[in-house]
Design brief:
A six-stranded mixed beta sheet has the order 2-1-3-5-6-4, sandwiched between helices. A six-stranded parallel beta sheet has the order 9-8-7-10-11-12, sandwiched between helices. It is built from ten helices and twelve strands. 36% of the residues lie in helices and 19% in strands. The chain is globular, with a radius of gyration of 19 Å.
Amino acid sequence: MKIDGYTRMAAVIAKPIRHSISPFIHNHAYQLTATNAVYLAWEVEEEQVEQSLQQLRALDMLGTNISMPYKKKVLPFLDQVDGSAQLIGSVNTIVQKNGCLTGYNTDGLGFLKSLPKTFSIKNKKLVLLGAGGAATAIVVEAIRQGAGKIHLFVRPESIDKYQAVFAPLSEALAVSIVLHDFSSRDQLNATIEGTDLLINATGLGMDGSSLPIPKEFNFPKGCLVADLAYFPAKTPFLQLAEEQGAQTLNGLGMLFHQAAVAFELMTDKTFPEEEVWQALKLEYPDYVLEK
């Protein structure tokens, strides 16, 4: 990679973030597309977020990606926000052009792009375990692409909180979004029947041992099972699904494809998908869920 006086910067901002593989994805894409830029990981404190975003203008940067816990906190400091990001209420990509900062959310589109090409979301039933920012982004994009029924399971003490989030979304998008009590096994068993896509968005399983569902849980026949975590590559949730013959998917594809959309927004170039994906698998084989 050539670095000179004309090299522009991009970054990912979060805390913690030094473990991120986003710099590998973007820098490899820059190299393949002859883009004179470098992508870094900026680990900043909450009180430094506004100052960090000011650097996007001051240094004429391409933009930045935003990860937890700052996806909502950056909103007051942006000049404009894309419609989908407004609905979701959080931003994971900021593009800087001519001093204007525009916020986007590419998480939902990244997840939908990671699904098998043989799977269509149109008119499908989705069940999500957890309802955080990534889950919200997936729900919005899934509805935009024609999904049918949407069900989310949350902790009983959080139902009112998430009802306030999803009720306006349900009205704005004219699709029923139903919240359920995660502690009710009867509700889970009744709702899971006929599910086409089941997503673990809770974070449980990233320790390699936790499960978001009981060990005796029965996955629906023919259901695609996804976990938004990508390390370990095969979480206990996915392991249990595989043991019952389900097709599974981890979160590496979502990370990859949301980065691809962010790259194209920042550079106005086509992301070299196949070349970067192959390089990513070679560099981070422990994150890849082999079939």
